[in-house]
Amino acid sequence: MKLSEVHIQELYKFTRRRLVEHYDLQTELVDHLAHGIEQGWQKNPELSFDEALQREFEKFGHFGFRSVIKARKKAMKTKYNTLLFNELKQWVSWPKILWVLLSLHSLMIVLKVLSQEYKWIILAISLLPGVAYFIYEGYKVKKRYRNKIGVAKRWLLEERLHSVQGVSLSFLNIFQIINWMAILSKPTDTLFLDLIISISIVAGFVINYVVIKVLPSRTELILTQTYPEYKLVS
Amino acid sequence: MANSKLYKGSLNTIILKLLDEKGKMYGYEITQKVKELTKGELKITEGALYPALHKLEAEGLLDVEVAKVDNRIRKYYKLTDRGEKETVNRLAELEEFIRSMQNLVNPNWSIQ
Can you give the residue ranges of every domain in chain B? Predict the structure, then answer.
């Protein structure tokens, strides 16, 4: 006996009730449960749908779907980190490295001409608009995804691509570095400190740009490449 | 899973080996195939199988494709080129491990 469309929808509801929020994982588990139920009916046709489902679910062990959800999230984090790493690699190779070196050089010149007494405070104030921009853009990206929840299917990697707030806020660490530099700086090691701070600022801008602007803008392409079922259902 | 502690470390290799032989398989099929091959001695639990499959996929050793079967979507796993090379390595490692263990517990026995 085969499961009907109504049964399949029941299985989707069942996975959602057990905290499987994302369509990609729901789909895989629904097929597994459905297959198990159909096999169970072959051996014991008297079983009701609910009984057969419960038997299959028990095979996932005491913690139910929890270990599967946890592992899936971890796997998608690895996938995301690979995407991020590949994108960042482009910024240390031709031609994008030209922009990085040019920015570093310009920053070094600016730091050199600023008076030692006020340069850290001037630098911190000049960075504020950039930080505010990334925080605002990060907020917009998150909001875009939040509006989708409950309306469209959710994909785990899509959620990861839009979880950018942490990164934009981590950019504030640059102010901490500037603070340390201001405390530690001595007239003798100015060049080294300028270099460290310039690298931190440029790296901060590049990482935030990739995480907040580049990767979310490629969501459709990334999801299509990651999930073969994406085009099938959207 | 019978003797779970002994089998646990080899689960990924078992999955890779099965996919190497069969080409592509879906989750439920893998559990049943292992059960069939080991005559029920080794039973891969669902709670262990999917985390292993997702990990191998994230590592780039497995690729996925989907097909509409009956009224639902089925996800098939297959080896990538890297996965094929890794299967050879892991099987060699496993054989070496079995050989070493055998030497420890029964020096007169050997595998081909």
Answer: 4-105
Residue A3 CB contacts under 8 Å (≥ 6 apart), including other chains: A11, A34, A37, A38, B70, B71, B72
Which of 2.60.40.1180, 1.10.10.10, 1.10.540.10, 3.90.580.10 would CATH assign to domain B4-105? 1.10.10.10
The verdict on a CB contact (< 8 Å) between B65 and A228 is yes
Contacts of B57 in chain A (CB under 8 A): 75
Contact B66 A232 (CB under 8 A): yes
| Cβ of residue B67 closer than 8 Å to a chain A Cβ | no
B70–A2: do the CB atoms touch at under 8 Å?
yes
- Model confidence, pTM: 0.82
Mean pLDDT split into 10-residue runs, chain A, 234 residues: 91 94 94 94 91 92 89 90 91 90 91 79 86 89 85 87 69 68 64 84 90 92 90 78
ipTM reported for the complex, 2 dp: 0.82
